[in-house]
Amino acid sequence: MALEHSDVLRAAHLARLGLASQDAEAYVEDLNQILAMVDQLQQVNTDGIAPLAHPLEATQRLRADEVTESNQREHFQQVAPATEQGLYLVPRVVE
Amino acid sequence: MQWEVVIGLEVHAQLATQSKIFSGSSTTYGAEPNTQASAVDLGLPGTLPVLNEQAVAMAVRFGLAVNAAVAGHSVFERKNYFYPDLPKGYQTSQMSQPIVGPGVLEILLEDGTRKSIRIHHAHLEEDAGKSLHEDFQGMTGIDLNRAGTPLLEIVSEPDLRSAKEAVAYVKAIHAIVTYLGISDGNMAEGSLRCDVNISMRPKGQEAYGTRAEIKNVNSFRFIERAIHFEVERQIDLIEDGGRVVQETRLYDPEADETRSMRSKEEANDYRYFPCPDLLPVEVDEAYIEHLRGTLPEMPAEKRARFESELGLSAYDASVLSGTREMADFFEEVKGVCGDAKQAANWVQGELSGRLNKENLDISVSPVSAAQLGGLVKRIVDETINGKAAKQVFAALWDGEGTSADEVIESRGLKQVTDSGAIEAVVDQVIADNPAQVTQYQEAEVDKRGKMIGFFVGQVMKASRGTANPQQVNKVLKDKLDSLS
Amino acid sequence: MSSSIALHDKTLSELAQGLSVGEYTSRELTEAFLARIERLDGELNSYITVCREEALRDADAADARRAAGKAAPLTGVPMAIKDIFCTEGVRTSCGSKMLDNFISPYDATVIEKLRAEGVVMLGKTNLDEFAMGSSNENSYYGAVKNPWDLTAVPGGSSGGSAAAVAAGLAPAALGTDTGGSIRQPAAFCGITGLKPTYGRVSRYGMIAYASSLDQGGPMARSAEDCARLMNVIAGADPRDSTSVVRSVPNYIEGLNYNLKGLKIGLPKEYFGEGLSAEVESSVRAAIKVFEDAGASVQEISLPHTHLAIPTYYVIAPAEASSNLSRYDGVRFGHRCADPKDLEDLYKRTREEGFGDEVKRRILIGTHTLSEGFFDAYYIKAQKVRRLIRQDFLDAFDQVDVLMGPAAPTPAFDLGAHKDPLSMYLQDLYTIAINLAGIPGISVPAGLAGRRPVGLQILGPHFGEQTLLGVAHQFQQLTDWHRQRPEFGQEHA
User: Fold this and answer.
1) C-beta atoms of B44 and C208 within 8 A
2) Are B406 and B429 in the same domain?
3) Nearest beta carbon to residue A93 from set B42, B84, B269
4) DSSP per residue over B156-204, as a string?
5) Strand C172-177 vs strand C78-82: parallel, antiparallel, or unpaired?
6) How many Å from the N-terminal Cα to the C-terminal Cα in chain A?
7) Which of C13, C26, C96, C157 is catalytic?
8) CB-based contact, A42 to chain B, within 8 Å
9) Distances (CA, A) of C64 to C20, C26, C27, C67, C75
10) Angle B365-B371-B374 (CA atoms, 0-180°, nearest 5)?
11) Would you tell me which CATH number, out of the four given (1.10.357.10, 3.30.450.150, 3.30.160.20, 1.10.20.60), belongs to the domain A1-43?
């Protein structure tokens, strides 16, 4: 399943990853090499095999419904690029 | 052409847990921005989710309440997209294996007809934060207090055929979640929000038309108005030779219109896959049965019981079972006074009227159910008459007295039934109003019925409303008629 | 100093012993390592951040605690931490420009545990960006050199941790392993590194690369040292749903393992094409040591081995593409200058903040998860993952442990693998272990010229105690783990 230039641009957009246009070509080549390797999987007969998402196949533990966190806004916002009045700032969102 | 509207609803109910679905942050509404956003809610590098057991229990209880298949095995998945109010760049949700499978909900329309609406499934997910568009030097502010609040998304089949049905459906969902106590159902605070999918098709056609989705409608009235607008828009579009495009729209209550949300215009590819930080959720039969045992009487059951056992009209039963607070209030009033019909009249009449007028919810009613029950009890046992009862109600509403009995006592509103006392007042009124007596005696017999009202009024006034009106009527009639 | 071995060449166990008998204080020990780092790390580049002040403060606290009679077994022992673990108040970069300015506001669970024990953190070690790499050449902070041969890579992604321990810039370090990132650098640098069973050690605060594969573990000079560290860091964590609630054995008690009767399986797929002769001869010699000690050896097949790399390169990038979406320039980390709108903020921040290999994996993962490809790639890979795991479950029905090389060659030269695919193929003996979730340990087992060779020992889920015991017994019979590189040795 070879991948084209437009596929890379589409993935880059979905991943909100800026790619200088000359980079995209290099990625097409690299990614196609990788996908060609990955395509070995298509040869494997997996009829009747269930997908394995976690190596231990355990089930989810549940947390008691208790408030255990306190306000640490100032602490957390020390590492934030832009804040004002306790809010994180981003370029204006148009709806 | 005759058009038929096809509506499917996605109702998002914020679950009434203390803490968030995947973190120990508080879910209290209205806190200062980002003061309830923990390391996990902010998606700080390295943080991981742990599932809140109450969120699971609440989802299961909802499933049981709508007779749905509760999934013994459900899976959280990641829905990947970028948005500033979505800290991790994905929403943890359920898609292919939700916790609640297909169910059914019966709705009651205003004309009394009933209709079954199929629920496709309901799933657990985390709420996003909020974008505040006030001006911060041309920037948008992000508050993540709401991020991670548990949501139950209840997805209907496209079984609804009018705005009225849609509203009835959302009201029914609202009643169920509030009965179960799994959501406060406060639409103004966004605890219950709705995405409305609407398409049109020629009447008689089976295939669905292209649908538009109106996001985040948050009141019953807006649901109805948004649907009305959207139906008109789509019909106009099609009849003018255009086509409805599948898109996300926003309802603007001020302009009373829906409009395309440009920011979400592009077709997204959410790349759902099982969240590797969470394991499959297993709920066993014993747990499900345990939760079944905790279910309260549900709205439909209550409505039926109000009709069959209490003899209420279908209308009264449906109004009084409409919300859990209303039903609980009514049942307490009924319990204290012992008369369902009188209780129903007072809750729906005097109380609801006053609450509406003052724009108050029954949960914060100044007159408690116990107080109102005590009042109605005194009407039932004829300690007071209706006129005095209104005075007592007003006094209780204004906080001038702690119980009906206390107000009756302190204001001497006890009904006078002693016939000697009533006769004395009647005699006095007749003696004081000779002109009216003469008029009465000269009137034709069939007109006298109306004229007697004047004397009743005088007697009641003289007795400060405490005389038993039936007795007054009878004594007056006897005396006036015997004078002629 | 009473001992003939220099402080920086001692094992963690020896240093803990020296502290407990008052041979030196934690402050003296910490100062000695800090001095060595200052003198030598300019050449190696194994640390991204050295925590001089914090380390000395913690050393003093450890000495005070010992004086008060409240010392735990490892109180006062210094160690290094892979810069992928969040450490409160200290930059946690993950080897990325994206987090170059990120001072973590919280501690990872394993860091909390180490602090509670009184372990002193010397600093944060270098790694491939977001743990994506096998050579440590993908770091924003530059490549790390292998102290055994400065023209060779230390391996990756925990290359800084391995190099620091090998060069005596820390007696031990914490690493993480998603496809071999503890075991392969341990092998390349001649140290002992354990990847525990998935879920044995908390992942909370360990910056995620591929969540269903990542696991933290110890890197040290001996299996005994690894056991001591496991005693501190292993165990269920209420903050990590995937950590396993299961009692934690005392790993020190398991060291006294009897090799007689041990059933060793040799996966034939691990001795085939691609394995260098020098690695094979060292590994076979090591296996002979076990046989001589009474273990039995049989050939085993893991028939789906060749599918491990393709499976991994679907699952890991898919999870990574989602895990790395949080780096958006909004709440922490790098943010591009003057974004003109939201999309520009995202795209430029991520373009500037991530390096090539990270971008490549994000693109692969995004593509394979997208509509129309998901079933063919992701679901298919998960099914094959089950087959790969089943290979191991079947093998452990027959034998107690599996043995083989940790890597097909000794440490390769810096710059040797220019194209990504040839680099990926270096991990063919380590990657399946993460897909199966089983534990594995790499122990020094020889030298190919100046470059070390690692023997990999694999066990069933939760078989760490056996692995550590088997490795420890090997280290009683050999002294490969006692070999030190020339680099940094003080000649009189």
Assistant:
1) no
2) no
3) B84
4) E-S-B-SHHHHHHHHHHHHHHHHHHTS----TTTTSEEEEEEEEEEETT
5) parallel
6) 37
7) C157
8) no
9) 13, 10, 10, 5, 10
10) 150
11) 1.10.20.60
Give residue-wise pLDDT tens across range C151-161. Answer: 999 999 999 99
What confidence tens digit (pLDDT) does each residue in C429-480 have? 999 999 999 999 999 999 999 999 999 999 999 999 999 999 999 999 999 9
Q: Which of C10, C46, C82, C222 is catalytic?
A: C82
Judge whether B64 and B295 are in contact, CB under 8 Å.
yes
**What SS3 state is found at C422?**
helix
Which residue range is the domain that position B442 belongs to?
A: 419-483
* Domains held by chain B: number: 3
**CA–CA distance, C490 with B339 (Å, rounded to integer):** 99
Domain range for residue C435? Answer: 7-265+397-482
Where is the domain boundary, B261, B288, B315?
A: B288
By DSSP bridging, strand C440-448 and strand C192-195 are antiparallel
Q: Is residue C252 situated within a structural domain?
A: yes
Rounded CA separation B404/A22 (Å): 85
Whether residue B311 is found in the same domain as residue B424: no
HSE, side-chain direction, 13 A CA sphere, residue B423 = 5
Query: Annotated catalytic, C82?
Result: yes
Q: Are B477 and B452 in contact (CB under 8 A)?
A: yes
Q: To 10 degrees, the CA torsion angle through C112, C117, C122, C126?
A: -50
Is residue B449 very low, low, confident or very high in pLDDT (cuts 50, 70, 90)? confident
**Residue C321 annotated in active site:** no
| Interface contacts (B, C; CB < 8 Å) | 101
3-state secondary structure labels for all residues of C47-63: EEEECHHHHHHHHHHHH
Are residues B353 and B259 located together in one domain of the fold? Answer: no
CATH of the domain at B442: 1.10.10.410
Give domain status of residue C369, yes or no.
no
Flag whether C431 is in a domain: yes
Q: Tell which B residues from 28 to 67 touch A, by Cβ distance under 8 Å.
A: 32-39, 42, 44, 50-56
Percent of chain C with pLDDT over 70: 99
Question: Which chains have 3 or more CB–CB distances shorter than 8 Å to chain A?
Answer: B, C
Span A30-36, mean pLDDT?
Answer: 95
CB of C307 within 8 Å of a chain A CB? The answer is: yes
Catalytic: C157? yes
Nearest chain A CA: its distance from C26 CA (Å): 31
Q: What's the number of CA atoms in the CB half-sphere (13 Å) around residue B217?
A: 33
How many residues are present in chain B?
484
Collapsed DSSP state (helix, strand, coil) of residue C187: helix
| Domain CATH for C446 | 3.90.1300.10
Which residue matches tokens 């004229």? B451
Relative orientation angle of helices C356-369 and A5-14, to the nearest 10 degrees = 90
Query: What is the per-residue pLDDT across A5-24, written as a single tens digit (0 to 9) for each?
Result: 999 999 999 999 999 766 78
> pLDDT of B390-442, one tens digit each?
999 999 999 998 999 999 988 888 877 778 888 888 888 888 988 888 888 88
C475 in a structural domain: yes
Give φ, ψ of C128 to 5 degrees: -65, 145
Mean pLDDT for B455-468 is 85
Give C264→chain B minimum CA distance, Å: 33
Number of domains within chain C? 1
Same domain, B84 and B221: yes
- Based on the fold, state whether residues B429 and B330 are members of the same structural domain: no
Which of C456, C458, C433, C431 shows the shortest CA–CA distance to C445? C456
Between CA C371 and CA C389 the distance in angstroms is 27
| Beta-strand pair B273-274/B77-80 | antiparallel
- Chain C segment 142-171 residues within 8 A of A by beta carbon are none
Residue C4, C-beta contacts closer than 8 angstroms, at least 6 positions apart: none
